[in-house]
Amino acid sequence: MSRFNPVQRTSSHRLINHGPTILITTRSKDGRYRNVMTAAWSTPVEMDPPRLVVLINKEAYTRELLLDSGVFAVCVPSVSFINETYSIGHSTGRETDKFSKFNIETTQSPELGIPVIEKGCIAWLECKLIPEPHAQEKYDTFFGEVVSASADPEVFINNHWHFTDQNKDRHSIHHLGGGNFFRCNDLMVAKEL
Ligand SMILES: Cc1cc2nc3c(=O)[nH]c(=O)nc-3n(C[C@H](O)[C@H](O)[C@H](O)COP(=O)(O)O)c2cc1C
After folding, report:
1. CATH number at residue 13
2. Within a domain: 190
């Protein structure tokens, strides 16, 4: 049972527009295998239809499962999940189920049946791979079309993030390298000149 609220597909780019570290989840085609990896490199590339890219290195088991099933999800971890996020990115799921290893609860995404993380995360987007073999092979870049998205209603309100001092443990995390992250919480509102 999801505790998140659906996000309009055409607003889903806002969930990752600010460059958070993400978790990529996927499964095998037959659903027997699943995996999760950490990624600092991702970005929306189109609003309507909503499309995004993630970069996945050639050794990652995630890449193998994603190519098998053609589906993946992007989950946005929060401050409360920083140790899991870091550890997931420092181990492979090739021989161990990282969800069990790190005690991670999952729920199934509604359209594509991908394991997605809500406890410790503040949003997810489920995606269908847009096959681009050249970009995948040469640049490790995987394009996805967002099929549905959902977010924590306490921090994503009216299609915008609301990171305040009252919900600091639910802010997104941003990787600086070497296990150092910062949280997204110094809001500034720009005026048009
Ligand atoms: C903070 C952090 C960010 C990372 N960003 C990326 C990334 O953007 N792309 C990538 O291919 N690997 C990235 N990694 C490394 C993968 O998460 C790592 O290769 C992982 O072990 C792959 O797991 P798998 O074999 O279970 O798929 C990152 C690791 C950390 C800790």
Report:
1. 2.30.110.10
2. no
